[in-house]
Structures are given as C-alpha cells and as structure tokens.
Amino acid sequence: MVTMTRGQWAEAGSSLEFKTGNWRSTQRPVHVHSKAPCHATCPAGEDQQAWFALLQEHRVEDAWKSLVRANPLPGVTGRVCPHPCETACNRTGVDGALAIHNVERWLGDEAVRLGWDYPVEAPSKDAPTVAIVGAGPAGISAAYHCVRLGLKAEIFEALPEAGGLLRSAIPPTRLPRNALDAELNRVLDLPGITLNLRQRLGRDVTVDGLRAKYAAVLLSPGCEMPKPWSVKGAVPADLHEGLQLLRDFMDHGALPEAAKGDVIVHGGGNTAMDICRIMKRAGAKSVTLITASGLPGPDTAPDDLINVVPRELEEAQEEGIEIIDHATVSRLIMKGSRVTGVEIISLKKEPGKDGRKRRVEFEGTERVVSVDMVVPCVGEQVAPEGYEGLLNGAYFWPDNPWGRIADRVFALGDARGSRGTVAAAIGDGRLAAEAVAAELRGDDDPAADDRPTMELGGLNTAYYPGSARARVAKLAVSERTFEAEIEGPISRAEALAEAQRCLSCGNCLACDNCWTMCPDNAVIKTVEMATDGSHYVFDYEYCKGCGLCTHECPTGYIQSVPETA
Fold first, then answer.
1. Comparing C-alpha atoms, which of 373, 374, 411 is closest to residue 392?
2. How many CA within 13 A on the CB side of residue 385?
C-alpha cells in the first residue's frame, strides 16, 4: 500500500500504483483508421493517403507499388482522369488540394523509366483462365488484377491494337501515345496475360463459346455506337456524331468542310470538350459548347457540374471556346436537309411529382444563332452484335457493385453503365476480377470497405503549416498543336514536397502528440508496429478519458467513444 501525501510526493515508480483509469466514466480514446476523402471518391479504388505516406518517407518505388495494387495504369490516369480525389481533398479547406494527379503521373512515368516490376507473381500453370472481351482500360485492368489474384487472363480485342478509347478517342495533347504504349505494354507483358487481336465478339468468338472454354467471362466492349439524336425529330443529312468524328480525326487527321465555319457542339463530357478544342485548333470560325450542366462556381451543385477534367475546361476557355451552360438545342433551322441555325433555350431544374428534380426548358429564353455544323455528343451505347440475350434492349447492362450479369459472366466499364471515366473503368476491372476470384474459390463476393470517411471537421488543422500546391507548366495557347502534350510533368523534388502537404486524414502519422501530451502517461509508444498499424497503444488502467489526445490528434485517427462501447 502506497501512502500519498497532500503534496503528491511518492517513491520513484510508485505512481504506477495509482491507476487513474479508475476515474474514467464517460469516454475513452480509440484508434479509428478512417478513409481519407480522396480514397473514398476515387473510382479506381486508389488509397492515395497510403502511397503519399510512403512518399513522405522517400520510399518512391514502394509508393508506386501501393498505388498499382488498385490501378495498374497511373501514368495514364494521372493524365486523363478528372481527379475527383482532388475535389474531395481536405486540404482544399486549408490552402488548396494536393496535386494528386500530377504526382500519380510522375510515379507512373518513373516506373516506366526505371523498369520497376509490378508487385505480382506469375500464376501457377494450372491456374484457371478468365476470358476478357475488350482491351480498353477496363479489360486491361481486369487482366492485371486476375494475375494479381493468381488467375490467368486471355484478352480478345476486335481492333489491331490494345487500348480501346485510350487510343482511339483521347487526343495526344492529353495522352501522348508513347506514354500510353509504354505503360500498356508493361501490363500486357506480365506472365499470365495473353492478348488476341482482331477477334470480334459475334464474328470470331461468342459469349457461349467463351463460357464453355474459360473459367469466367468478363465483357468490356466499350460503347461503339452513338445514341440516337434528333431535335424534335429533325436530323441533319450530314450529321457527324462526336465520338465517331473524334475517331475519324485521330485515324485520318481530317474534318468535314463545315467544320471551318461556325460550329455548335451539343453535350457535356470530355468527348465534347475534345471535339471543341480540335475544331478550334483546326481553324473553325467559332466553336460553342451547349451543355445542360453547370460551370464551376459557388452556385453550382456538385451533381450539376459539367463532367469534364477541370484543367481541360480551363484550357478550352483559354483557347476561345464559348460555353453556354444550363441550356439545350430546342430546334434545328434547316435549309433543305442542311442545318443553318439552331434555337437555344435555357434549362432550369424543377421537382417532379416524385420529388426528384429534372431539367425543363425555360420558356421565353429562346435565342437563334447561325451555324454551319452541329455535333451531338450525347452518349454512346454498346453495339449489340454478339450480345444477344444479354442487353435486353437497354443501352447498358444493369449497374451493380461487381458487374455480374450471369453466372461467371461480368460486364465492365462503359458496358455496365459506369461513370464514363478511365478511372471508373479501371475500378470496374479490379472489382470484377476480385468477384471472379471469390466465385471460383466458392466464397461470397468480397466485402465492401465500409469504414467512415474522415472529413475536414475531424482534423486539427492548426498543426499543419501553410504550403502552396505545386504549379505545373503548360504550353502557351499559341504553342498548342494537335500532338504536343499541353500539361508538363512534375519533378521529383516537387512530388516529394507535395507528399509532405498530405494531411494523412484518418491515419496515424506518428507525430507523438498523444504520447507527449497525455497527462497520465497512458499512451505507450511501441518499437514494433501494433496490430492496428500504429506505434501507439492506450493503457486504459491509467487513461482517465480526458480527451486531450483526441483533441490534439491532427488527423482524427484518435477518437473518443462512450465508455460502454
């Protein structure tokens, strides 16, 4: 028994007998590894916080390996992704989002330059083989993740080259072909992946034939056919749909004669933006984008924002593209079968009988403009050849977490009604491969990551000094051609500096705040990593639940929970 005096004097070490944890009655601290917002919003499933943490330790190759556990094409997505991770980044509430896509691109390019090996092993000789239709981003990702999970993958591609829309519909100004080929070929060269070119579904192979021969079938055909477009039944005789026009230009470098005049592009995605910029660069007198969505601004809701890469929107405006938002083409003015003008009308959102808001035309806002050409970019659909009995008259297959449409048959990317981005297609490939691997093992579908997301309010931002986002050089408007990449690379020093800006949302960054500030020495620092991934454990015999560690944790990794929890 230790006798304590009013002055709290005691023999050395005897304070350990005074278990202040007995005072605790309402709350106690726990470690909660939450998802960072960048990870929660990434369509590819990347854990940006995890690979930024490795970059903070200058473990560059390990950071790349962490990244490619989800996304095997970071050099591609770092160039073309609209990076919703940056929009969600908590650092926007401090001094600006991390330049995630720039660092991602740099890591991908470094891996190519230095020849880093993907963190996968060759499948065993008797491993099941999965058939994959389509060598676009979803199909390539699926093949990679099949190998990562110990399966073989055999790809059937209708075209003479792999890449899908990465090659046929994204201009070199956004995705240089040498960068695409270098990363794509590294994935296709992995042991366990076989690529068969000029193999079209419905002509050379069938779904039933593939199901009979392979362990599973993943369908990633992309969307090759434009959705029907007309304005109240009127269609110009010389109609050129956006994606096909873009493909023709990429293949042959030519545009219709009418493209030299006044051009209206009707749509609101990256294809529409690419068409606008190509036509302007090719010498169109004027190019105007008509979109039902809104432009970035304080009054634009996130679900109403135009679906294009933010920097592409900025560059298009620099290049003189006019954008009319919250509007649509309400009438075509024709001379014979040739369009000579359009009537544009504004749109507004109003709630319907079911309470959902829908865009409706705002009468009285009509205006007429003269045009020489109208290019619709209103979406594409899967070509039905080879998919009889699967499409069921719909543009896309039903959307579900894994893309499963039948026993051992899965749909990926645009074909499953995905969100129309390269990153989403890559994420689809990973999810389908994981579901296939589980199905072949006889397991249930993999569990979803249901961890909470750490928002800005859960951080203590007082501990983060201000630091400006890295600025990346761009070609001047006068120097932009059809081939030169517009946005430049980030340097190693800039990438490592950008990593230091990461707030490590929801994860321990080993700052020692809890260890040094606990008034009861109830936080123990461990030499080896604890089971929760940190180097700290709570000694509840001495923790009196004061909440100081929770308040002073910069990242929200420490949270106070009711004592009964």
1. 411
2. 13
pLDDT at 6: 39
Question: In a 10 Å sphere around its CB, with 0-12 CB exposed, 13-18 middle and 19+ buried, how is residue 292 labelled?
Answer: middle
C-beta of residue 138 within 8 angstroms of C-beta of residue 425: yes
Do 14-33+508-562 and 228-377 fold alike per CATH? no
The Cα 349–Cα 357 span in angstroms is: 6
- The structure tokens 């055999």 sit at 154
**Amino acid at the residue 186:** R
Percent of the chain scoring above 90 in pLDDT: 63
- Scanning 454-552, the segments in alpha helix (DSSP H) are 492-500, 513-517, 548-552
CATH of 14-33+508-562, one of 3.40.50.1820, 3.40.50.720, 3.40.50.1000, 3.30.70.20: 3.30.70.20
Report whether 216 contacts 440 (CB < 8 A). yes
**Cα distance between the two ends of the chain:** 32
Q: Is pTM beyond 0.70 here?
A: yes
| Structural domain spans, the chain | 14-33+508-562, 38-118+461-500, 129-225+381-441, 228-377
Is there a contact between 418 and 424 (Cβ–Cβ < 8 Å)?
A: yes
According to CATH, the superfamily of the domain at 228-377 is: FAD/NAD(P)-binding domain (3.50.50.60)
- Residues 521 and 500: their CA atoms lie apart, in Å, by 29
* 3-state percent breakdown (helix, strand, coil) of the chain, nearest 5: 35, 20, 50
92 vs 529: CA distance, rounded Å = 31
CB 525 within 8 A of CB 492: no
The 10 Å CB-count burial string (b at 16+, else e) for 501-520 is bbbbbbbbbeeebbbeebeb
Return contacts of 392-395, CB within 8 angstroms, 24+ apart.
395/227
Q: What is the DSSP letter of 369?
A: E
Q: Residue range 162-166: average pLDDT?
A: 93
pLDDT tens per residue, range 432-463: 999 999 999 998 888 888 899 999 999 999 99
d(CA 176, CA 423): 17
Distance (Å) of CA 548 to CA 41, 127, 184, 225, 542: 31, 53, 50, 60, 14
- The CATH code belonging to domain 129-225+381-441 is 3.50.50.60
Region label for 472, one of left (φ > 0), alpha (ψ between -120 and 50) or beta (otherwise) = beta
pLDDT tens, residue by residue, 198-251 = 999 888 999 889 999 999 999 988 877 778 888 888 888 888 888 888 888 888
In a 3-state reduction of DSSP, which class is residue 302? helix
